Amino acid sequence: MIKRLRFFSLAIAIIIFIVCALGFREMLSAQQPAISHPLTALTSTEIKTAVAVVNKEKNLSEKAVFPLITLQEPDKKEVLNFTPRKTFQRQAFLVVYERLQNKTYEGIVDLKTQTLSSWKQIPNAQPAIINPEYDLAAQVVRSNSQWQAAMQKRGITDFDRVKINCWAPGILSNQEVAAGQRLCRALSYYKGNNWNYFGSPIEGVVATVNLNTAKLDSFVDNGVVPFSKQNWNYDVQSLGNLLSPPKLLKILQPQGASFRIRGNVISWQGWNFRYLMHPRSGLVLYQVTYDDGENIRPVLYRASLSEMLVPYGDPDPTWAFRNAFDVGEYNFGSLATSMELGKEIPENGLLLNAVMANEQGEPYEMPGVIGIYERDNGMLWKHYEYNTQKNYVRRSRELVMTMTAAIDNYDYSLNWIFHQDGSLEIQNDLTGIVLVQGTSAEKQSEDNFYGRLIAKNIFGVNHQHFFNYRLDMDVDGQANSVMEMNVKALPMDEKNSLGNAIAVTDTPLTTETAAVRDLDMKHSREWMIVNANRQNTLGTPPGYMLMPGGNTIFYPVEGAKILEKAGFATHHVWVTKYQPDELYAGGDYPNQTQPGQGLPKYIANDDPLTGEDIVLWYTMGVTHIPRPEDWPVMPTHRVGFKLAPRGFFSRNPAINLSE
Predict the structure, then answer these.
(1) Does 330 qualify as catalytic in the annotation?
(2) Which of 190, 301, 312, 410 does the annotation list as catalytic?
């Protein structure tokens, strides 16, 4: 009897242990995101593992930093052939910078075996500016006697009232190139008692800091220039009289949102895609497909913001170096800002978090940096039919996935917009504060044509904003080709006696160098990615069109050094054969880069583009001539483009949308 009781007690204890263990495991799985697909973002645990492996395998110094840690994207074929519960590679990609050695390394860590599978030094490469360097530069400048004397010359004795901003050095002198040191250029602003200091630049003063030695490399003071002393704070208390807001507008979805999220997969109105927040590129889309009711059809494998460029147009040496590569020099994605419902996105939206790593390799969560929401977009299609005396119309809905980022004075929003007509729109919003010069002028002078006076003692410098998008197109598969469409008027003859004929021609672009192209308004030029191995119901290849929106040209003249550094901005369209390591239009390391990197280098082999896995690169730009209405915070300006189906569907894909 006693033995039976002991056995019974032991059995109960074992059952309790198993139940507790299972419960603990379930709790852990609830806290740790499931890694069920090769394109799942790195978790905090994986980031820690990757850093621990590198620290174990390599004798890093105390000054070593991690400017970039992200998912090492798996082989494309592996991803396309992946099926649920199938094993897959899991790797982390790390950029490591040794400040004392002034050396940059790239490492790949196998997260399953916890081993270092690749490690190499990247010669003559400077990674993006990282957070500690901003403070380091400010300390070096603030303690320098030359800088202090320059401030005193301007009547500034309390140096704590001066804000020092650190920029990537931009265009380097021959001496700086030869020295090969890691540099930044420090700009000074008088903030006084105000928090918005951008209206009070201390003009003519630029300090170049050697970030390796923590010393001043060079110093320029071109003389005293007046600057605005006005309070340009724009909070409610500072603004005083306020405009009456419009009456309350409520956006309600009483039945819930129409989109569905599973892990990092989103589906909506036939669209299906994955997303990932990249510390460099920001919000990236993967495996974009469309369900036409019969087949799930691929459109894009990967879509990302590849590079940005903000060149300023004043030839003064204290301004001419300012050519910011906001993606590659500052890690655009890591500068994402938290959003709020009812503000950056409407109240019916959903905010998502992202996990990234700081410069010490420590993971942290960024709350509310990804937004997703539906919005009304007017009419989707309409016709009033006189024969039936009926109004046939459907309301348009859009799905928007968005992020915002603050890069010093400017703020940007990146929006992926999915439409019910099968088109995908990319829209960038530009806002924030114009980068200005101090000036003695209180009225516009005609002898300074490098910008416009936008307030008393505040001069807005002419500049441009360029965005390059990398679009790995997989239209109905990977065997794609690129066509250019041009429209022209035909001359009058016996077949065109009224001179109204409009002709369109499609020209194949068969090699990489032939596919370096520009917009042409006179010919309504557009580009189409087609799959010649497939045919639609009309016997033509299904395709997707690149439909440009507003754009501009890159203004620097031949011989300008920025043309060599930012070759991608010299043309609107580039097409390359897919290479997994060609991700950035301005090159992997645009900070202090060698000329000719990025797209000009990618097309050097002049690979064929017919029936290949191809990547479409599109550069769009804005030329900004500042105006008084841009001050003190610029109203949002939008620029974008569309990828629209052409022959991909047999009819309007939204024609049978229920009322």
Answers:
(1) no
(2) 410
